[in-house]
């Protein structure tokens, strides 16, 4: 059996919460090696995690937060592109929980976030794009969304950059890092060097065929982020995740709503079920 690809991520901070521990453990339990890049000593790293020096990828003096947002997400975008250019394999954000092994044989794997059911307005946008008679409209029409047809299904999607697989020395890694590094951190907005840049790169480099259906990695939409800690949603989430390789827990929503990731919720909610499953 071919060895599963290495999973890689970054953590900036003094300790991991239950969510990050759950993310790492889920990949380890599904047979992957997990490389966690850090700049300092970090408490709570699960056993068998391979700890890597993040300075070897991007030096610590390059770390920044968004000017009006207490988040390292912009720097994390920069870091992942350079890491993928140097090392290849998978990058995952630490709010991604593996539900089964990432046994994709292709060199490239990307995830789409479906917007098809978000609102009537989005459905009207979809109809308008279908009338353009093109499978991939120019991003200038409505960045960063575009049409793909994974498994012959037409969807209005956003390409997320929370799960990326590419080979070392790829044009994708180089392009995204160069573009991200050219931006002034003081003027960056949320998503500028994330999904917006990444979507443009995928289309520019003609890599759309490796964009997976939204149910593979992002089965739960961001506006439903709270379902995982609510009673009565577990069975519905299980149905939604029947074809999923992972579920995204939308950490940014937890942060903005000031939800404690180390809190204990109802034992029947999906988040607690995952913690029980992976013994976190």
TrEMBL record:
InterPro entries xrefs: A1-4-GlycosylTfrase_dom (IPR007652), Glycosyltransf_32 (IPR051981), Nucleotide-diphossugar_trans (IPR029044)
Keywords, alphabetical: Transferase
TM segment ranges: none
GO cellular component, one term: membrane
Occurrences of domain Alpha 1,4-glycosyltransferase (ranges): 190-277
GO biological process, one term: glycosphingolipid biosynthetic process
Source superkingdom: Bacteria
GO molecular function terms listed in the Swiss-Prot or TrEMBL record: hexosyltransferase activity
Annotated protein name in UniProt: Alpha 1,4-glycosyltransferase domain-containing protein
Organism: Thioploca ingrica
């Amino acid at each position: 059996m071919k060895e599963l690809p290495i999973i890689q991520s970054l953590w900036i901070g003094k300790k991991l919460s239950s969510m990050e521990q759950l993310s790492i453990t889920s990949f380890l339990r599904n047979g992957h090696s997990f490389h966690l890049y850090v700049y300092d000593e970090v408490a709570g790293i699960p056993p068998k995690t391979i700890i890597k020096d993040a300075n070897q990828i991007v030096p610590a003096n390059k770390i920044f937060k968004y000017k009006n947002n207490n988040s390292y997400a912009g720097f994390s975008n920069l870091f992942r592109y350079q890491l993928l250019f140097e090392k290849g394999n998978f990058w995952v954000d630490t709010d991604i929980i593996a539900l089964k092994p990432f046994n994709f044989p292709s060199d490239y794997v990307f995830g789409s976030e479906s917007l098809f059911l978000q609102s009537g307005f989005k459905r009207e946008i979809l109809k308008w794009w279908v009338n353009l008679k093109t499978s991939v409209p120019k991003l200038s029409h409505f960045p960063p969304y575009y049409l793909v047809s994974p498994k012959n299904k037409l969807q209005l999607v956003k390409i997320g950059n929370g799960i990326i697989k590419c080979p070392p020395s790829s044009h994708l890694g180089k392009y995204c890092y160069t573009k991200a590094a050219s931006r002034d951190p003081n003027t960056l907005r949320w998503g500028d060097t994330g999904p917006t840049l990444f979507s443009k790169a995928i289309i520019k480099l003609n890599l759309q065929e490796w964009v997976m259906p939204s149910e593979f990695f992002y089965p739960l939409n961001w506006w439903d982020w709270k379902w995982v800690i609510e009673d009565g949603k577990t069975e519905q989430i299980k149905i939604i995740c029947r074809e999923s390789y992972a579920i995204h827990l939308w950490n940014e929503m937890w942060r903005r709503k000031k939800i404690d990731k180390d809190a204990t919720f109802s034992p029947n909610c999906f988040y607690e079920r995952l913690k029980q499953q992976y013994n976190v």
